[in-house]
Amino acid sequence: MVSRMEDIHCLWDELVDFGASEIDDALVHFMRQIAKIVDADDVVWVGAVRLASGASARRDPQLGWRVQSARFMNPKPQQISNANRSKREQDTAPALTSIALVKEAGKPRVHRLRDGFVDLDAFKKTEHYQYIHVMTDIRDRMYAVTPIREQAESFFLFDRVGRNKRFSLRDTETVAYALRGLKWFQKELMLANGLNIADKPLSPTERKVIRLLLTEKTEAQIAEALGHSQHTTHGYVKEILKKYGVKGRTGLMALWLSRQG
Questions:
Q1: Which regions in the chain score pLDDT beneath 70?
Q2: What's the predicted TM-score (pTM) here?
Q3: Closest Cα to residue 96, out of 47, 50, 129?
Q4: How far is 238 from 224, CA to CA, in rounded Å?
Q5: How far apart are CA 175 and CA 100, in angstroms?
Q6: What is the set of domains in the chain, with CATH numbers?
């Protein structure tokens, strides 16, 4: 465990060196390094928010929680298609694992597929298990969740693909330790995807624009970099500022200046 802790400490230091506009690169770096540490074949990040509360949430199998964004370490067409299907079916056929995970909302937690947090026999009989696990040959999965605020949580999914080696208790302890020191980073992930403060998630184009807004580039330079007209780019900027509830780029940057707060 000492060697793993040393690797995690190095990873923490490396993530701090990424600029606010480099969050996507930072996420990929984190995924690749933590995958090496716990011997995972793939890692997925998911941002979830609670869209309902009170009686409405109590009537909902997922207690009002819904996945809003997902990012993949090794994105594949089938994987993305399956994730989109899972997102579409949240209202009609939510995964048993999702239902189990949100019951513990509000506290950091790490689970393994076979640690008893979900009825595995029942889960294997669902369509979700078939298209998420069987279709892509995922043999084991680890789920790590960090509350960002009362209505937002950050999920990391770790997969073993095409082999029967299962995640261990040591692996869960390693991941829990790594993420406990990275709430600031996960908060920034939520911000960059419009999930922590913005009322609606950012579109893929808005995510590209916001990364450049966090640099010193002018709107004209941003437009040139994206191949857009200045008018189109200005429209995106206005919509982004509106989503985040700030009046200008200074206010937007202020959200990121509290990244380790």
A1: 1, 196-200, 258-261
A2: 0.83
A3: 129
A4: 17
A5: 19
A6: 2-182 (3.30.450.80), 204-257 (1.10.10.10)
